[in-house]
Amino acid sequence: MRTVITLIYVVVFLIASFPVSGVQWLMSPKDKHRRDMMMLHYVQWGFRCVEKLSGSHVTVKGQENIPTDRPVLYISNHQSFYDIVVTYSRLPGLTCFISKQSVFKVPILGYLMKRLYCLGLDRSDLRSGLKVILDAIEEVKQGISIFIYPEGTRSKDGKVHDFHAGSFKVATKSACPVVPVAVSGTRDILEYHFPNIKKSEVTLTFGKPIETKGMTRDEQKELPKLVHDEIIEMLG
Description:
The chain is an alpha/beta fold. The protein has helices at residues 2-27, 32-53, 82-88, 109-115, 126-141, 169-174, 217-235, and strands at 57-61, 73-76, 95-100, 119-121, 145-148, 178-184, 201-206.
């Protein structure tokens, strides 16, 4: 029953996003930033509802570590589809998630992702990867944070696998801080018994930001391992 109700809610939420977007435009036809923030809050509210429908309880730690006066690069482990649900609703500002290109083909969802500056990555195309990184750097320069799962895909065994070093160029090339993010418990919601949704105890932890401005080349090379080890430590 929980699964059916959640699915119905998601469909209704997606369909409602079009008239909601129209109302936002009528309210602020000349203020794009305000429309973006209204859409952000709408999606965050929607994700909170999906979280509640799962019956899960989320414990958030270290949210005060997130800088609110400048964009950052969030680096997180990846266990489940629900990672995005519990994380995105707690980010303080506009944030671009980097996702696989196929997700953008989902009706309406792709529209919402583009509205919120998300970028699509074709994992089979090396040039696509380079372009996404360059686009992400430009987003940071425009004041938009970036969220990346540098393992490349969801972990099948729950372990934190090696990070792709290219993801960190978004921070080192734009001199923005890196915020490590650790998520645990989301696999219990969906992945262990797909397609059924079960309640779980989830912990979401934001680490202290790591400044990249002024880093030497050697420090930049060590950054992926530094963040990787920090996330493992945060997971306990």
